[in-house]
């Protein structure tokens, strides 16, 4: 039996868990290829026009592998924290795929994840898969326990300073040059965005590597403990409804408050409802903390040259302003960059 896993959405966060689980169950995994213009176009073709870019991309990934597998793994992600939820598009994703992708109606494997933490290893979430995959209860429990252990190791890599793309490479046994941790570059940026916006190199136009090439230290929400992010938004009378939006917001406030973080970049997909709120909240706080903030808004028509220009200008202005503060003489005007919005 072959199970297809689209390399999109929460693949970047939970793939080590899913891979370990299926490996332990002796089920072959087929990954879709990295996002390309072809995949994006297929996603646009089979998605409703109003849906956000990440869902269109995911749909394209499903289209690209649906004919090569017995089932496509599309978990119904409801919640990973009590009283908070995923975006409704995540909850309805299995149904959207079933009824928009040709041939998917009987090929979607969709366990329902309703956890009270990032730990998604509860066997009850996957009970419906047992009869489909022909596996026993004990077999499933054993696989899930190992999957959770491997996922925790993977998460620790992020907390040690690795960006998720590097952590995934390490999980796969690949060697990387360095882990881009503290004090390598002269500028430190809090890079905020959902994992499927930042780590899909086609969608984000490879922003991680571009920042590394500019000698920038990168800080993301995955590098922080949940307790740190929760404490940063403890002042809010009411948290947002969406768990990962709260993670981004908590990380944003935390990085604003860190003296060694020089500015924030928020990568957001056009049409994302939750991001329209947290992006504006973080932008408004830029002047309060006296730190520059930039929004990079992406859609299926975004061009890489625009991102390159925006990112280089943003980092260059921060670097020049920082040098001025350190007493380096620079004859430049208009170095104020607070609240700079670089929507593409």
Q: What proportion of the residues is helical, as a percent range?
A: 40-55%
How large, in whole angstroms, is the Cα Rg? 21 Å
CATH class division of the largest domain? Alpha Beta
Low-confidence stretches: 329-344
Beta-strand level of the residues, as a percent range?
5-15%
Q: Return the structural class.
A: alpha/beta
CATH architecture label of the largest domain: 3-Layer(aba) Sandwich
Mean pLDDT: 88
Total count of domains: 2
Strand order within the widest beta sheet: 2-1-3-5
Query: What do we call the CATH topology of the largest domain?
Result: Rossmann fold
Report, as a whole number of angstroms, the end-to-end distance. 42 Å
What shape does the CA trace take?
globular
SSE pattern, N- to C-terminal: EHEHHEEHHEEHHHEHHEHHEHEH
- State the helix count: 14
Largest sheet: 4 strands, parallel
DSSP strand count: 10
Describe the structure.
It contains 14 helices and ten strands. It is an alpha/beta fold. The protein folds into two domains: 157 residues, 3-Layer(aba) Sandwich (Rossmann fold); 148 residues, Rossmann fold (3-Layer(aba) Sandwich). Strands 2-1-3-5 form a four-stranded parallel beta sheet. α1 links the parallel β1 and β2. α11 packs across α12. The longest helix is centred in the middle third of the chain and has 23 residues. It is globular. The N and C termini lie far apart (42 Å). The C terminus is likely disordered.
Features:
344 residues; alpha/beta; Rossmann fold; four-stranded parallel sheet; 14 helices; 10 strands
Concise structural overview:
This protein has 344 residues and is an alpha/beta fold. The protein contains 14 helices and ten strands. It is globular and about 70 Å long.
